[in-house]
Amino acid sequence: MNSKPFRQAVMAIILKPDNTFLIGSSPRDGGYKFPQGGLEEGEDKKDGLYRELQEELGTVLTSDDKIIKLPQSFKYPYPEHRPYSEKYSGQELHVFVVKYRKTMSFVPQDDEFDKLHWIAATELDQFDFRHRKEAYYNAILKALKMI
């Protein structure tokens, strides 16, 4: 039994009115993923969301943005020999649905993402989310039921 804790993290489901959402291919982690990242020591989850979106995509959220936090978190295990796997069992995602606004821009800022895609829930199976797949599917299902 693994006694290591899960790393606390935030994830954004950026949702357009047509119910498509933003994912990106990740040269750093391989496969595809949602904008996400670990919380810093003592950081509020919503503040972490704002920081991660700015760091990864250059996206600046405003106080006018509609943001909904899902009531539950979603966990996935880390593969062995990956960053953080020495210290953590995996990642626990605190998921936020961010309603897209036309003035939002998304420009990958580092090696977190190279190509971005807007996809529908029916297209999830076409993308390799690797070890994150089950957590992502469960988060999307919950998000789409809430909105």
List the helices and strands and how they pair.
Elements: E1 6-15, E2 21-25, E3 32-33, E4 36-38, H1 45-57, E5 67-77, E6 90-99, E7 116-119, H2 133-146
Parallel strand pairs: 1-6
Antiparallel strand pairs: 1-4, 2-3, 2-7, 5-6
Structure description:
There is one protein chain. The chain has helices spanning 45-57, 133-146, and strands at residues 6-15, 21-25, 32-33, 36-38, 67-77, 90-99, 116-119. By secondary structure, it is α+β, with helices and mostly antiparallel strands. The protein has a four-stranded mixed sheet. The longest helix has 14 residues, at 133-146. The mean pLDDT is 94.
What labels describe this entry?
147 residues, alpha+beta, 3-stranded antiparallel beta sheet, 18% helix
